[in-house]
Design brief:
By secondary structure, this protein is of the alpha/beta class. It contains 19 helices and 10 strands. The protein has 2 domains: 309 residues, TIM Barrel (Alpha-Beta Barrel); 83 residues, uronate isomerase, domain 2, chain A.
Length: 402
């Protein structure tokens, strides 16, 4: 097979493959209060807010007092008019506007926003444009208002799959236990009360994995806790993998609110211990710091019950993805789950996946060229199988879902 043939087949295949996006903060439009879409929401993304705060000397408290439309206009004027929108988060907005054929030359924010609103874009159109088959939501059973989605039947459960996000058990235990107690007949044992509530939530939401984000001390606390010993046993009984998102430090700058989280340390020896101590449980793991990526990938070769995934948050930058994706493939072959979008606004699916697929294309073409030079009989079927595994089936097989 010639190089030009490989390029054509890889790119044509990538344009067709239906993607399973295994970690997002998206909700269906039927969950009205939590469904985010459009240019105003996209410009209110906390990645852009952080960039606004550190690129200008804007008064943060005054900015926070604005409504979303006013904030979006400030972000547009400061980051896209007065400055060059060259960061990954800014480029993402430009990708969305271009993909929707919305011109920005000689137009102000209101004119651009008017054109955008005129499209009346639906989630289905965005999923279709981005080739997304389904996404996994982040569902917190200890946020009763957000959890109310599971009281309604009127949304597409195939397109929006659920997860069981358990950070509240580490970050606000008292609030969590007070909710759980209302759903358990147990009167004293807190672990039983929590497990009873999680069982109820499992029946109601049918999650495909449980998840928690942790820094070192929280991870150590979890590993020592009797409650988490019971939760891991319960997860095993439910055949539910646990997604660990490691190395976050919440509230590095509290005045930045959601944009104020940063990188915390993590000791991946603790992860290896967990995989050894719970060999029947399955762990889906991503790390926030570039410093942890090589060790995490090597651990991906040491534990059958560990699957590494995605370029999480501060890792989701093209300048980092390319070298780390190459390292992961060098060490793991094509057994990994290379990406998730972490999208918070549905429209972001358009850029988060097109930006990643561009890098995936060049990394796969380079690898396939190495194989051709070694007389490996590469074929269109092999390329299709590989890309389908990377963007969908590796996750489905690990999560045991269709
Ligand atoms: O904890 C998480 O799931 C993170 O993805 C946070 O939501 C973070 O704010 C984020 O959106 N990262 O992309
Ligand atoms: Zn997330």
């Amino acid at each position: 097979m010639k190089k030009v043939e490989v390029q054509t087949i890889v790119n044509n295949t990538l344009n067709k493959i239906k993607i399973l996006d295994i970690h997002t903060h998206l909700f269906p439009p039927q969950h009205e209060k939590y469904y985010l879409s459009g240019l105003v929401e996209t410009l209110n993304y906390h990645y852009l807010i952080a960039e606004l705060f550190v690129s200008t000397n804007i008064n943060i408290e005054k900015f926070k007092s604005l409504d979303k439309l006013q904030k979006a206009e400030v972000v547009w004027n400061e980051l896209f008019d007065k400055r060059t929108p060259i960061s990954e988060a800014c480029k993402g907005v430009l990708t969305i506007l271009k993909s929707l054929s919305i011109p920005i030359k000689d137009k102000n924010f209101s004119q651009i926003n008017k054109l955008y609103c005129g499209l009346k874009l639906t989630d289905k159109e965005i999923f279709k444009k981005s080739n997304i088959d389904s996404i996994v939501m982040t569902n917190n059973p200890f946020n009763e208002d957000e959890w109310s989605i599971f009281s309604s039947k009127a949304w597409d459960k195939k397109r929006y799959r659920s997860s069981l996000r358990l950070d509240s058990l580490m970050l606000e235990f008292n609030k969590s236990i007070s909710i759980a107690q209302n759903f358990s007949n147990e009167t004293s044992n807190k672990s039983i009360q929590i497990i009873d509530y999680l069982e109820l939530c499992f029946q109601k939401s049918q999650p495909i994995y449980a998840a928690i984000s942790l820094d070192t001390e929280k991870f150590r606390e979890m590993l020592k806790s009797d409650l988490w010993k019971e939760i891991l046993k319960w997860l095993l009984r439910k055949n539910l993998p646990l997604s660990l998102m490691l190395g976050v430090k919440r509230g590095v700058n509290k005045s930045f609110d959601e944009a104020g989280d940063g990188i915390g340390n993590i000791d991946l020896k603790d992860l290896s211990k967990l995989c050894n101590n719970y060999p029947e449980n399955k762990f889906l793991v991503t790390c926030l710091s570039l410093n942890d990526q090589h060790e995490l990938t090597v651990l991906g070769r040491k534990h059958q019950n560990l699957k590494i995934f995605g370029f999480w948050w501060f890792m989701n930058q093209p300048s980092i993805i390319e070298p780390i994706l190459k390292m992961r493939i060098d060490l793991l072959g094509l057994s990994l789950i290379p990406q998730h979008s972490d999208a918070r606004i549905t429209d972001q699916l358009i850029y988060k996946w097109s930006h990643f697929k561009k890098i995936l294309s060049s990394v796969m073409i380079e690898n396939y060229e190495h194989l051709i030079k070694k007389n490996y009989p590469l074929s269109k079927e092999i390329i299709n199988r590989d890309l389908n595994n990377l963007l969908s089936d590796n996750a489905k097989n690990f999560l045991r879902i269709k």
